[in-house]
Design brief:
The chain is mostly helical. The chain is built from 8 helices and 5 strands. A hairpin with a 2-residue loop joins β2 and β3. α1 runs antiparallel to α7 and α3 packs antiparallel against α7. It is globular, with a radius of gyration of 20 Å.
Length: 187
């Protein structure tokens, strides 16, 4: 399965941090048992953290990858403009932290889809609260996501995450005719 780029995955791992033993995330409403790299039962990736549960770092990485792939697939159809790998990875990191549904209604996504990349990057900074309070850790994460989003990436994102609009049938006919003409000219 195709996934986000390494810079994006590294950013998620850095800010989620690895926890081998399940802990109760009291900032989540309602509080959620969490393990590994911020994995909860809500992610729906095959694990339901509970009190006393432990996992290895390799297991945590597997669940993280599953969640990232799932969230990437969920947000990709909501993106209606061409997007590069760093932009997409920063959006997946944001969605991993706030949830794909919240991302789908975000100002960041709306601005991006309107063609305002800098406005989208700035709007990511709005997601710096938990329990109604601004948290320094979330401010740092949003700043890092914004920086990644604005970092040029000359490689396109994975093909299956780029929104594709099929060419009209008349255009496909014209292209086929042109290829036929040039194919005959070479003979």
């Amino acid at each position: 399965m195709t996934t986000i780029n390494h810079s994006s995955l590294r950013l998620i791992k850095e800010f989620e941090g690895f926890r081998a033993k399940a802990y109760l995330d009291k900032l989540a409403k309602p509080a959620l048992w969490t393990i590994g790299y911020g994995t909860t039962a809500r992610a729906g990736v095959g694990i339901e953290p509970d009190a006393g549960m432990t996992i290895t770092e390799a297991e945590a990485e597997m669940y993280l990858q599953r969640a990232v792939d799932k969230f990437a697939a969920q947000i990709a159809p909501k993106i209606t403009r061409p997007i590069n790998g760093n932009e997409f990875g920063a959006f997946v990191s944001l969605a991993y932290n706030i949830g794909p549904s919240a991302f789908g209604g975000s100002t960041a996504l709306r601005r991006f889809n309107l063609g305002d990349k800098h406005g989208a990057a700035d709007a990511m900074l709005m997601w710096d609260k938990a329990g109604g309070k601004v948290l320094k850790g979330l401010q740092r994460r949003r700043a890092a996501e914004r920086e990644l989003f604005l970092t040029p990436d000359h490689l396109p994102p994975p093909v299956d995450y780029v929104p594709v609009t099929p060419a009209p049938s008349w255009l496909a006919g014209i292209i086929a005719a042109i290829l036929a003409i040039f194919g005959k000219a070479k003979a």
